[in-house]
Amino acid sequence: xxxRYERNLPxxxxxxxxxxxKKRVLVVGCxxxxxxxxxxxxxxxxxxxxxxxxxxxxxxxxNRQLLSExxxxxxxxxxxxxxxxxxxNPDVALEAVEVFLTAxxxxxxxxxxxxxxxxxxxxxxxxxxxxxxxxxxIPYIYGAVNGWxxxxxxxxxxxxxxxxxxxxxxxxxxKSVLSFTPALCASMQVCLCxxxxxxxxxxxxxxxxxxxxxxxxxxIPMV
Length: 223
Description:
Layout: H1 14-21, E1 24-28, H2 32-44, E2 48-52, H3 77-88, E3 93-97, H4 106-110, E4 115-118, H5 123-136, E5 140-146, E6 149-155, H6 161-165, H7 181-198, E7 206-211, E8 216-221
Helix pairs in contact: 2-3, 2-7
């Protein structure tokens, strides 16, 4: 076992660590959620990542986005993610794609990946991503934050979790995000990802809901 991964043991077995080294993960969105997702995946030892974001950093990102820094304002978020991973774990094969997710490119972006992690911040893109994952038979790990609240879930093909959670006509108005909420949400998403890829039991189609203001946690069946 490489010294880099020694502290993964015994919580993860050496065999599980080797499995992670053979997996490719897609992270869509390199902002508040995505930055934490990418950093955690690199540190745990995922072998390959494709990260997707067509946006650049702006001052309003600085309150919560792990990858954002004042010197990086105006810089591509996907490019910053690649630079971060190169510094954290250069053994990770990282592909940075500087585009926004669309219905036209979603299929090619998820191609060849074992699991997809949602770091998005809008419903239209989230629906596109979930539909494409279901069509391709690829597990989709949902995450979303709002103020003090975080929620995460694994969605498998055919369970229609996103459609159930966000019926047509749903409008999200409050875009408040605190510095700590994305970190919690991303931790749950990466935990689910690692368990899924290494064969640990996971509960699918169920929302893990965290209300940090009221210190409440719920598991909510959705499918």
